[in-house]
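Thread: Modeling a multi-component assembly for a lab meeting

Hi all, long-time lurker, first post. My supervisor asked me to bring a structural picture of a complex we are working on to next week's group meeting, and I have zero experience with this. I have the sequence lines for every component (232 residues in total). Could someone generate the structure of the whole assembly? Inputs are pasted exactly as I received them:
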Amino acid sequence: KQEVTQIPAALSVPEGENLVLNCSFTDSAIYNLQWFRQDPGKGLTSLLLIQSSQREQTSGRLNASLDKSSGRSTLYIAASQPGDSATYLCAVKGYSGAGSYQLTFGKGTKLSVIP
Amino acid sequence: DGGITQSPKYLFRKEGQNVTLSCEQNLNHDAMYWYRQDPGQGLRLIYYSQIVNDFQKGDIAEGYSVSREKKESFPLTVTSAQKNPTAFYLCASSITSVGQSLQETQYFGPGTRLLVL
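Re: Modeling a multi-component assembly
Sure thing. I ran the full set together rather than chain by chain. Output:
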């Protein structure tokens, strides 16, 4: 069964710092990996989606990498801002049988950016 | 505006009571999902539906039931058999869950927080 682990569970950084969030997964047979953002008491917003054949994706100050063979992904946030404070969730998409595909989520990293 | 709506935002359940959480989408998506989120935990899949009048159990379906009579709607009922229902419930949708849309992400609603009285 797929397991997704995110380290660290919480992170506090001063504004302007570059930071890296880590995600690891146990089964490399994935179709894609996604990073989501969740604000307190809210739903999830997709940030980046990396296909299994890709190595990285970039969107603005965010860069996500994927090393499928080693079961690892990183989310790099450049020049962090207080508005980046949120919980970041990693999820991998795998085959779940009967022609359907499911997301398996990590527990998230809670990021606080201090002004 | 296209999106997913969930209601109510907060829901209170009494002992032995069944409660129903609403999820509606106007994105014309075929697939819809229900997840449960507990504090400090990742999302866990309760039920999903790939098409109208069809749905499948996820990892934690016991104590829950769903229906999919319309493409736009996927209500979740938390039954009295669910002994620990306090959680944040998230509904999501995607164009389809089948293989040709592997690049498709899931879009999430704002969530419903269920509390037990």
